[in-house]
# Entry
Amino acid sequence: MLSYAVRRLLGAIPTLFVVITLTFFMMRAAPGGPFDTQRALPPEIAANINKVYNLDKPLIVQYGLYLERLAHFDLGPSFKNRDFTVTELIAQGLPVSARLGILAISFAIVFGVTLGVLAALKQNRAADFGVMTLAMIGITIPTFVTAPLLTLVFGVYGLSVFGHEIELPVAGWGGGAPINLLLPVTVLALPQIAIIARLVRGSMVEVLHSNYIRTARAKGLPNRVVVWRHALPAAILPLVSYLGPAIAGLLTGSLIVETIFSLPGIGRYFVNGALNRDYTLVMGVVIVYATLVIVMNLISDLLYAVLDPRVRLDK
Amino acid sequence: MIATGTSAANAELMTNAVAVRGRSLWVDARRRLFRNKAAMVSIVVLALIALTAIFLPLVWPYAYDDIDFTLVNCAPDWWPDPDVMCHSGGWHIFGSDSVGRDLFVRVLYGARVSLAVGLVATFVSLVIGVVYGATAGFIGGAIDDVMMRVVDVLYSLPFIFFVIILMVIFNQSIWLMFIAIGAVEWLTMARIVRGQTLSIKEKEFIEAARAGGVSQRGIIGRHIVPNVVGPVIIYVTLTIPSVILSESFLSFLGLGIREPLTSWGVLISEGSNQLESAPWMLIFPALFMAVTLFCFNFIGDGLRDALDPKDR
Amino acid sequence: MATPIFEVKNLDVRFSTPDGEVRAVNNANFRIEEGECLGVVGESGSGKSQLFLSTLGLLAGNGRVTGSVLYRGREILGLPEKELNKLRGSKITMIFQDPLTSLTPHMRVGAQLIETLQVHRSVPAGEAERRVLETLELVRIPEAKARMGQYPHELSGGMRQRVMIAMAVLCGPDLLIADEPTTALDVTVQAQILEIMRDLKAELKTAIAIVSHDMGVIAGLADHVQVMRRGDIVETGSVDRIFYAPKHDYTKMLLDAMPRIDQPDRPGHARLMPLPLQSRTLLDVRDLKVYFPVRTGGLFAKRKALRAVDGVSFQLNEGETLGVVGESGCGKSTLARAVLKLLPKTDGAVVWCGRDLGPMQQEDIRKLREELQIVFQDPLASLDPRMTIGQSIAEPLRTLKPQLSRDEVRKEVREMMERVGLEPGWINRYPHEFSGGQNQRVGIARAMIVKPRLVVCDEAVSALDVSIQAQIVDLLVRLQAEFGMSLIFISHDLSVVRQVSHRVMVLYLGRVVELAGRETIYENPRHPYTRALIRAVPVPDPKMERSKPRAKIALELPSPLDTRAQLTFLKSKLIDDPDAEQYRPKLIEVAPGHLVAEHD
# Structure
């Protein structure tokens, strides 16, 4: 397995290379530059700025310079927030996004698996239809609709539960206080819960109809043991394969969530950076995200091989 | 059985007449689909929305860009909350938005745009995905490996970022949106088509056709394509909602459709800004979009059950 | 009279499907006494499996059972799950047809065995392991301790079934229900499993209910027999009476349809045409080799060759049928496809009517397809589900004789359909509307419509019910008499092969071990593998089965990648290295037309 992991990581390098190159040239293709302001700058100042940031050199040379810097893990200065380097900005924003993401995927797995298993065990009965309908709703309603709705219900109007008023903050990071995290994490997790529930339900139903479950029952094993020891480990497998795409989905979702709830994560940096033509910031964020997705895919494949003894990675 | 002369001709006629029309798999699938109530209702609802969106604005008293500053953020007359600032009156059955435009006709226009984006972008992804996936699946071997490696690499890119960048570069042209979104969705389509092609290729009846002397082209055209069509159709119906969501996502970020055109995503974006003062601005477009997405999902699920019943 | 271990009264099993209610079992009544073996025989759709599944509460969700099931006089039908679980797996146990899918893939074999023991008897872990090892040895699994740490997919088919049997006898059951336990296994492996079951019955005095479609298996194991058809029990009786004096027509039909290796030419079946004295050689295969490259694991992946066909030579004359027999992995299907040029060969020559097919261009080979055709094993899978059977049958004709008009094609299709026993009026129907047997007739019609000179039947009857199999075999023999084509008939079932072939070729791991005429191969088999194969075939004759000597060689089909496997029968020349190039046993002509590979 180690050899497989090494091979995959080596193979990921060209992928990253492609990502970097594509992003680089695409960003530069956009009209306008990072230093365009409302009024035209005096030509000498403009020329100076261009020289400092190497914007006067031919594109290929700029590309080369960037790669060289990258080899030293230097992501360059942010063009817009000139007091910070990109690395610093990312170091500020990444923990915020990471926390959101990890909490969201954890909730999603816990709730999604529970609901999916429940639906499968009560297949075609009330609980099954209920869960599947909720899942359908979770998938079709976009995060930028649930966010304002939940904000309205819990944040603005407040909800009275058992005589307690629940009012949640609608914006701001608050230094990562749990109360600030509650709404954004929920909004981020909802679509994933729905997808995971559907996935697990389908997989569990299939497993429950398989021959080895029939054997387990024929052996007189109690239902608990049949479900937990024989069915569940097999039913979970598709979920493991889904982890890679799940991360990608969370990344997309985080863009919205961070914007709506005004959270200082790197998703917001990306959107603003793209709009402001802050080349280096955009590149930096894209590289971080791409690496994350690649690593998650690798982890998911390795985990799958660990859980399913039939899979041999060196096919 | 020896027959002579006219009795032979008669026998021939009779046996020709006796040949029964068989029940093809398509007919079976259609029957199963018709039995699926959720899917049938969805088709009707979707048709209604589409027809209303196309025809009703032609006769509606307001155009989608009729600004009226006397009716800013006004609730429809039937709105249950008594605390609203104003009522819009007239034919504004969904109320009015922040510059007094009629929300109902804007929702219908949004339907036109969103559905158009859904269909066109899906079509783009269909064309690219099918050609790519079928070629990879059919040729197989090293070429297939290479082609799929490319797909895997592209898959691991956070694609939405590239779409955003593209939109920024090309200043949000609607045509580009079709292409950009389509260019993102084709990957999964290609994977599915390739998977299907591969599995069909392995089947014995392909070998039988080859043993019968059928050429490569004959095998592709007569055997592979008709058998791949089914799952492709299913996936198309499930791609459309995904595309509509992507478009609304972009619009929400401000990178999608531009004024004065509107789409559901734009309306939802405007609506969520006005949520406290004018919640109807969010509710109606969101409702329409949700219902449309539901319908596509039910139809897609229904098609899947109809074409491959054991997938329950 | 002692209380029977198991008694079933008025049992009805019904399934509600979207197309209406299906009655799987109608009013079943029978009993099994202590220590007795009941054989339940029937074809597909007879309800024999559903019968037993329903008694143990193992039916699929939409099934309903009514009636009475008594275990030692106590009603067990409708028992709450908790009570039923006390009986299942300990007092009444069941083993199933496909051991690969019937064992949990992600649990080690040992764990699956131990958990059975611990659920029914509270036994400390060490003691449990000891008992499991004892039972594994009882079913003759070598290196039992090592096996316990393995996963099901790492064991061979025979091993897996032994594990299932071990799991079933672990708690000393009163009744063991075996649902088609050997159907998915090779013939020699099947013989071993049946022997184990016989021994268990004698030693442990367990009652057994064995369900099978193979009357030979039933004859060798059962004391009492029950014949089922479409949910009804049509006849019951002692095994001797059923086999030697059947009363019901269906039983008689089944016995008649079942091919017997010792009686290849029975009255009432199509007779094999004797060969013309002077017939020319149509096909000459010389030292054919087909190797597949396989990667074996590790960072530096080694490339080994899977020798599917490893030097096979034979000749086929006009109007002759050559039977090719072997178990899984012997390369018979690969051989068929290589001869028909559906697979690229690796080495050797295939000469058809004097023309070497090797260097031929694709275009020329396509034209030759008119003369070389094939019928496949799975009737439904070999027909395009989106084409009508008429279109499927017409396809080779339209492709290879494009000059024919549509009407001419239609006429030929209808004629061919009649010849193979299909109603011409069905020409516009689709494969899924027909049964397996009818679809196979479509496959045969499609192969025959271009009037080929050679037809390869690749396990063409293996997937069919016995009665249908008999009809298709008769059809093939009759068509050969009518059209005079040559046949290569491939099967794992030696009884059928003997019935249909003039000469028989036995393959083992890609090589020929014996080639002889149909009489000689049975009366005077020389190679130990041929002998083991013949002995392993169950005969539907209880007295013969009872007096069979026990198998001397415990054969386990080795991995074809291990080069030592080739010399299983010539151990004297073996080099003990799995990768070394080994000695090739030569084919010796011990009598005219009788070739045998060298053996110890």
In short: DSSP finds twelve helices and two strands in chain A. Strands of chain A lie at 159-161, 164-166. Chain A has a mean pLDDT of 79.
